[in-house]
Amino acid sequence: MKLIQSIRNIFASLTFTHRPSVMGDLITNFRKELGRPFNGFNQQDASEFCYRLLDDIITKCDLKPVNNIFSGKMETSVICDVCKKASITHAPFLGIQLPFPTSNNNNDNNNNSAEKGGLKTELRNHYKISGLLDYYFEPDILEDDNAYFCEHCSKKVKKAMKQARFVHMPDILALTVKRFYYDMTGTISGKIRHPLQIEPTLNINNEIFDLYGVVTHHGSSLNSGHYTATASHSDSSDSRWWHFDDSYVKRLDATSIQNIQNAYMLFYKKRKTLLSIISDGKKFENNQNLSSTSSNINNKSSLFYKKLMSPDLLQNIRIDNCKYMIELFTNSRNVYNTNKTTNTNMMIGGGGNNNNDNSDGNNNNNHDNSMDVD
């Protein structure tokens, strides 16, 4: 439970701190609770970290409500081309990894079509999230070296069709765009930089999902580069968006989201579901008042965190907020004194400079005249 406690402390501090960012012991203690290789300081994959963290929270910490929020169920069917019988399996998922529909893993943006299971797919409509999802769920033909062993026929058949579909959608849908490709040895060869249209809403199985978070990878390799995040902080139609780059935070308008380049992870939230509060170990759903404002939700969240926080942590945050206020006052006073001293020096030196300017001006005039004579 130390992992949960460290996460709780971070979110509580984010809720109540007056500082623009959280750092120091809170992040250090959280990192200590992570397993290898995420407890070190080397560059790691954001997608792997996200799914690993969710899995640890669900399994090791036994928090089933988190599983209810992020976990969905997928059905995979394989139909034998000989006996026409289907083999159906169901499996849970915490996220979907979406490949680009290219015929080979390279960075060639000029491909016009791709093959998946022998079915030709036009790419012009697939460089957007909904297109990648459509491509992901296209039928896949199993044949040749990838031939299917049919239990009913008791042999490998020449052809079979494999296809997947969602049977249960999570409240939070996590999508990873597969932007990195590998060579035959499994070594990362490069980054796929296909432009991708980010859609603010998705219609999946007649359910509407709204975009509320994007993780972007900056750089040319999975083993290096920099991650930034962009997230919404509102359930209203005029969503407030924020860009997070380490300790730097910038306000964005909703239209800026569609201009994000190299989106790597996207998080969509099922509409008409309030997930900001978890009470008594159960998911909070306010079906009677879906029009609750974000301010009411934030107030409930604040009260919720206060109940979970230890008195020592709350006291430490209060003390740190006082220290931060003193730091701001001290810095502003220093800036004021510096500006005042600079202005005073300029006023004192102004008369002498005027004389010098006149003198310099006469010299310049003489110099100019001499040049004119020449």
Ranges where pLDDT stays below 50 over 5 or more residues in a row are 103-115, 117-125, 273-298, 352-374
Output the helix-strand order: HHHHEEEEEHEEEEEEEEEEEEEHHH
Percent of residues in helices: 25-40%
**How is the biggest beta sheet arranged?**
8 strands, mixed
Gyration radius from CA atoms, angstroms: 29 Å
SS-based class: alpha+beta
Could you tell me the strand content as a percent range?
Answer: 25-35%
Please report the total strand number as a whole number: 18
What is the general shape?
Answer: elongated
> What is the number of helical segments per DSSP (H or I, 4+ residues)?
8
Mean pLDDT: 75
Distance between the termini: 89 Å
What features would you highlight for this structure?
alpha+beta, 374 residues, 18 strands, elongated, disordered C terminus, 8 helices, 4-stranded antiparallel beta sheet, 8-stranded mixed beta sheet
Q: What does it look like?
A:
With 374 residues, the chain is of the alpha+beta class. Among the domains are: 1-69, no CATH class; 322-373. The chain is 34% helix and 30% strand. It contains 8 helices and 18 strands. The protein has helices spanning 2-16, 25-32, 46-59, 64-70, 129-136, 294-308, 311-348, 350-373; strands spanning 72-80, 86-93, 96-98, 113-116, 119-122, 140-150, 155-168, 172-177, 180-182, 188-191, 201-204, 207-218, 226-232, 241-245, 248-252, 263-270, 278-279, 282-283. The strands form 5 sheets. Strands 3, 8, 11, 12, 13, 14, 15 and 16 form an 8-stranded mixed sheet that branches. Strand 9 (180-182) and strand 10 form a beta hairpin. The longest helix is centred in the C-terminal third of the chain and has 38 residues, at 311-348. The relative contact order is 0.11. The model is unreliable at 103-115, 117-125, 273-298 and 352-374 (pLDDT under 50).
